[in-house]
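Figure 6 in text form: structure in, sequence out.
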């Protein structure tokens, strides 16, 4: 499948590996793909994000992803649902971090040292890449671009989609910006 990726989409995948390495994560996750998309300039995904007003708020997206990482990858909706059951996730995070240090609950963290230097993609990241393939196929695009990765990030439930939606970036809004009001394929 990787041979079908455009130069920009390949850069997103490689950037996601770099994001995972930078955070010491054992696996490359969907949030790393999002962070990598945010770093892109001059691509279709960066155009869509700029058109949707995310330019001055990228650090806010990064901060929201960091907060979710501190909550062991729980979405805000999941945190709210647990609160409804009487479970105070922020209090639990605070107590765990008090005992074990900041970021102790960060999902997928390890010692940051891997002998092979290879970080596998977790299930969510793989699902995003498959979703990008599906988005390209649905649009009858022969190549998978970083815009398809962005569409896939907004389409599947989880922290990246929730954080993007909180910043006004949804599947519908990205589709509208990239392909117009009717959502017709742009080729």
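Output sequence:
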């Amino acid at each position: 499948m990787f041979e079908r990726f455009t130069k920009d989409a390949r850069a997103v995948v490689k950037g996601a590996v770099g994001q995972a390495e930078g955070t010491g994560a054992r696996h490359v996750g969907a949030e790393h793909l999002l962070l990598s998309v945010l770093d892109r300039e001059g691509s279709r995904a960066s155009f869509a994000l700029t058109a949707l007003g995310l330019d001055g708020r990228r650090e806010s997206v990064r901060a929201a992803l960091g907060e979710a990482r501190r909550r062991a990858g729980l979405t805000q909706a999941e945190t709210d649902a647990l609160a409804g059951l009487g479970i105070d996730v922020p209090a639990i995070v605070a107590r765990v971090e008090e005992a074990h240090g900041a970021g102790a609950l960060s999902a997928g963290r390890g010692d940051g040292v891997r002998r092979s230097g290879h970080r596998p993609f977790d299930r969510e990241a793989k699902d995003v890449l498959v979703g990008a393939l599906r988005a390209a196929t649905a649009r009858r695009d022969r190549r998978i671009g970083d815009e398809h990765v962005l569409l896939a990030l907004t389409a599947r439930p989880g922290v990246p989609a929730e954080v993007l939606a909180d910043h006004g970036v949804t599947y519908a809004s990205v589709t509208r910006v990239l392909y117009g009001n009717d959502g017709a394929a742009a080729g």
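Caption detail: The domain at 2-73+119-179 is CATH 1.10.1780.10 (Double Clp-N motif).
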